[in-house]
């Protein structure tokens, strides 16, 4: 374009700029509208789905976990906010917050027995006992979800894996690798002996005693000098609890 | 659930480490607490007033898990009850212990309540009537330790709620309740 001098030239350049801007805004608006429309459709679809299967989601634990999986895939977190339409629609937020409160309660009330470390399986069965009236089945998956929501409180709730089992930690105790390995060995019978640790993990007795002393101090272990072989046993209530149903834990087979 | 006669034992009774005194303070406190409750509950349900450390006591060993309390552990648990006023050493060598699953004051209140509910105000009962008579059958008073009963009655006497008087023989004391 040939540059035109003078006021007329400046004016036409400004007019052209305005035109460009208008066109640009239009394009952006159209795009946003399309997006909004898509979002709206997606939302209504999800709402429709949730409404249709509301009862299944609330009552059927398998369905619930599949629903969560689906939500996770499309990047929606039904638990993210209690104000969202999910909460209003399903009360699903409330469900997990309620579970969370009950989990905290169970962890606190059993802390003096297990030192703040509890088997997920046991936590779940205690939870079910407590919720008998609610009749909605609660799975370990639900427990894990509720616990993950508790993390925002910064209260140190955490799920750790020890061997095949998952343990829920409600105290800020840091367990190192040695402690984890001891807990893993203890899962077989509910207790360990120093000799057993030396043999199974090829540790020196000093290493075993050190780690066991720490676990004792943290209230995670209890000593037992009463066996007739005279060897001290270290019991771990978090892996074989005194609350478990008869026959389900190791020490009963003694 | 394991039972001892008609007594339902708590879960911890089958967990072996509870039979060894725990070295860590918090764990020990919890352990002592559980044993204190168990001893009081058991004695109450079986109407046991005296525990002798020298003799076998069904609570102090569990054949199912093959564990029993050491002499030291027994003494620690009973001493904890003594500290709380829920038990008293009978002898200086701490071998026999009187278990007060109701404190003397509570026994006095219980007796007063019994008297009121059954219309024994202004009537006379002998100590043996209260312990083994038909009137107290089915109440906590049936089979009550003689010493405990007399102490509760004396407390009532101090409050002017009862008057104790001697009968013809030494173990034939009578008591007159007043409203």
Automatic annotation (TrEMBL), chain A:
Protein transport as UniProt keyword: yes
Xref: InterPro entries: ESCRT-2_cplx_Snf8 (IPR016689), Snf8/Vps36 (IPR040608), WH-like_DNA-bd_sf (IPR036388), WH_DNA-bd_sf (IPR036390)
Source superkingdom: Eukaryota
Pfam families in UniProt: EAP30 (PF04157)
GO biological process entries: protein transport to vacuole involved in ubiquitin-dependent protein catabolic process via the multivesicular body sorting pathway
Annotated Gene Ontology cellular component terms: ESCRT II complex
Protein role: Component of the endosomal sorting complex required for transport II (ESCRT-II), which is required for multivesicular body (MVB) formation and sorting of endosomal cargo proteins into MVBs.
Quaternary data: Component of the endosomal sorting complex required for transport II (ESCRT-II).
Record protein name field: Vacuolar protein sorting-associated protein
Organism, as annotated: Musa balbisiana (Banana)
TrEMBL record, chain B:
Matching Pfam families: ESCRT-II
Coiled coil regions, renumbered to chain: none
Keyword set includes Hydrolase: no
Keywords: Protein transport, Transport
Annotated Gene Ontology cellular component terms: ESCRT II complex
One GO term (biological process): protein transport to vacuole involved in ubiquitin-dependent protein catabolic process via the multivesicular body sorting pathway
A GO molecular-function annotation: structural molecule activity
InterPro entries, per database record: ESCRT-II_cplx_Vps25-sub, ESCRT-II_cplx_Vps25-sub_N, WH-like_DNA-bd_sf, WH_DNA-bd_sf
Cited PANTHER family: VACUOLAR PROTEIN SORTING-ASSOCIATED PROTEIN VPS25 (PTHR13149), VACUOLAR PROTEIN-SORTING-ASSOCIATED PROTEIN 25 (PTHR13149:SF0)
Family according to the record: Belongs to the VPS25 family.
Protein name per UniProt: ESCRT-II complex subunit VPS25
